[in-house]
Amino acid sequence: MSSTSPRKHVAVIGGGILGTSTAAHLAKGGAQVTLVTAGSLADGASGRSIAWLNSSGARSADYHYLRMLAIDRYRTWSNRHPESRSYIRFDGAMKWAGPGESFRETYAFERAGGYDSAWVERADVARVAPDVNPDAVAEEGAIYNAGEGWVNMPDFVPVLAAEAEAHGARVIQDAGEVRVDVQAGTAVGVILGDGTRLAADEVVLATGGHVPAQLAALGVTVPDATPAAFVLFTDPVDLDVRTVLNTPRVAVRPLPDGRLVLDADWAEQTVVTEADGSFTVPQESVEGLLSEASKVLAGNPVLTAQRVGAGLKPIPGDGEPVVGPVPAISGLHMLFTHSGATLGLILGELLAEEIISGTPSPVLKSFRLDRFDAGAEDAVSAGTGAWAPVL
Ligand SMILES: Cc1cc2nc3c(=O)[nH]c(=O)nc-3n(C[C@H](O)[C@H](O)[C@H](O)COP(=O)(O)OP(=O)(O)OC[C@H]3O[C@@H](n4cnc5c(N)ncnc54)[C@H](O)[C@@H]3O)c2cc1C
Fold first, then answer.
1. What ligand 1 atom has the least distance to the C-alpha of 214?
2. What pLDDT score was predicted for residue 301?
3. Do 294 and 219 share a domain, yes or no?
4. 263: which residues sit within 8 A by CB, 6+ positions away?
5. Residues 338 and 211 in one domain
6. Measured distance CA(88)–CA(242) in Å, rounded
7. Domain count along the chain
8. Final residue of a domain: which of 312, 342, 369?
9. pTM, entire model
10. Considering the chain, what is the average pLDDT of its residues?
11. Can you give the pLDDT at residue 281?
12. Which residues does ligand 1 sit against, CB inside 6 Å?
């Protein structure tokens, strides 16, 4: 932005990884930024995520490319901010198939694309990943992805918000249910929970699983496959767990303080959404996850539950990100995606650049809202038959 042009004021709604990343990149790029969020930073999906950094399994070429850029940005961040290395780690990940399944095709797909993927026989598991119980691994072996890792977003999101503030942004927490202020088809600012109106030149909607309902209230439809989900945080475990595990019955990743975070598809399906919108997790699911996690870890440590984190897991209808302008409402931009842990830095960077420069990013071309318009279905990529992770 030139020093003579007026600074664009951008209001960002949502204090998760996507909102804070966008706010930080906008502020660094010279925009005047106000970030507003309902409660505390990272109180949504970003605070209860496995947050495995990956481009594992079968993906469209465009989506794989975006994810590889995403991982690249984390590596650069980690290099520039050595203090982040306690909560951004690239210690590798392992996955294996369930009974009656095989990951050979997935391995072939990953290798064919040049992804850092190694096939590990059971006998070699202890050497490659000493934190894994080899007896739990599928008979055919496992895939080890040395370049994958994890981010602990409750640590990272406040850092991004502080970065935004260091570049002049205003961050407003506890703003209540914020709405986009739309007048005559144009987003003119935001309306805070208490009715206060804040004017802005452009608005970014980054409210995670709440994006579809907020857009629906403005007459805009985004296909939505958001389920209720939960993760289980364990108490600290007396084992040096470094590998992110994606196994048939449980996913496991370490936290900086020695706790683990666990989830699984079968457990997610047991979450009950109550009439008041709250979520109940059955005790059997908690115990089941602890038991499954103990089985896949070396030495089968006894695990105990510290707390459950339940809520929406934002997922667009076709599973791929929806990023950029909302065509029906001038000045409104959206960010709605799964895998937001992996994609957080790159999507915030590219969207901020688009808003500041007014030039659409070619990298985001496949991820626009209008791909869902009638007749545009062919643009949505098809799977390959190899395993595609739900994370
Ligand atoms: C169980 C689980 C496992 C996952 N595993 C992985 C993984 O392994 N790898 C990966 O890359 N991703 C993973 N994800 C996805 C990733 O965590 C999310 O995509 C990401 O955290 C979404 O970030 P967000 O900023 O869009 O949304 P959120 O983190 O939900 O943030 C949205 C924010 O907006 C606020 N808000 C909502 N409505 C309003 C409103 N009306 N007004 C003001 N503020 C509002 C919320 O309070 C919240 O702070 C997982 C998610 C879940 C739930």
1. 41
2. 98
3. no
4. 50, 229, 230, 231, 232, 250, 251, 289
5. yes
6. 12
7. 2
8. 312
9. 0.96
10. 95
11. 97
12. 13-19, 37-39, 43-46, 48-52, 175, 177-178, 206-210, 229, 231, 263, 313-314, 337-342, 391
